[in-house]
Amino acid sequence: MVESEESALSTRPVAHSKFPLVDRNAILQEFEAIFSGSAPSPNGCLSIEGSWGMGRTALLNAACLSAQSAGCIVLRTRGGTGERPAPFGGLLHLIEDIASLRNANEEVVEQIHKVLDRLQREGERNFDALGAAFSGLVLSVRKLGFVVVAIDDADQVDDATMLTLEYFFHRLDDQQIWLLTTSPARQSGAARW
Q1: Cα dihedral sign for 111, 179, 75, 79?
Q2: DSSP 152
Q3: Collapsing DSSP states into helix, strand and coil, what is residue 181?
Q4: How many CA atoms lie within 13 A of 33 on its CB side?
Q5: Domain ranges of the chain
Q6: Per-residue DSSP letters for 27-48?
Q7: CA distance 113 to 155
Q8: How far is the CA of 187 from the CAs of 47, 49, 60, 158, 191, in angstroms?
């Protein structure tokens, strides 16, 4: 049985939770202001940190819904659990998300091929070239709308993906592109104000 485009897109991760977010309204309002453009935030990294079970993923899901409601294009991946993740696994998942966009045009498809070609030819040997190719891809997607790259459990994403994203985000200008991550708190036991 062949899936329709509608049902194929519905297999993408859905941002929802069966449990309501408690005491997160202020944070969600900040995300909404950033993604809607009502708060000055040209681009950057937004990090949700906390211990296991504190609702990081639920907050990320709510932030992604807020971004989608504001018209942003949300690209998602997550770190794996258990075994060592495959190199570029997270990056390939982001590329799959881009390829599934309904309004992906010839330029986006061409940029996808450039990134995949770089991965195949050079892999981890040349992060500058790969980062530049991935930058071209995301900037072509940016022409379709503001972009949020959401990474759940970023601490468990493969190093090759994170190095590629680091290259990309260090070279952004005023593009309305955000990296949204979840990870454990950097300092365990630190007081929260």
Answers
A1: positive
A2: E
A3: strand
A4: 9
A5: 43-183
A6: HHHHHHHHHHTSS---EEEEEE
A7: 28
A8: 14, 10, 20, 22, 9
Name the pTM for this structure.
Answer: 0.78
**Cα dihedral: 80, 57, 62, 54 (round 10):** -170
**Buried-state track 21-31, b at ≥16 Cβ within 10 A, e below 16:** eeeeeeeeeeb
pLDDT per position as a tens digit, 130-148: 989 999 999 999 999 989 9
pLDDT digits (tens, 9 = 90+) for 144-160: 998 999 999 999 999 99
- Contact of 105 with 73, CB cutoff 8 Å: no
* C-alpha 76 chain-centroid distance: 4
CATH of domain 43-183: 3.40.50
Give the CA distances from residue 122 to residues 25, 117, 125, 133, 163, in Å, rounded to whole numbers and listed in that order.
Answer: 45, 8, 5, 12, 14
Tokens of 11: 């297999």
Q: Strand 147-152 and strand 43-49: pairing?
A: unpaired
**Tokens standing for residue 106:** 């010839």
- DSSP letter for 14, please: P
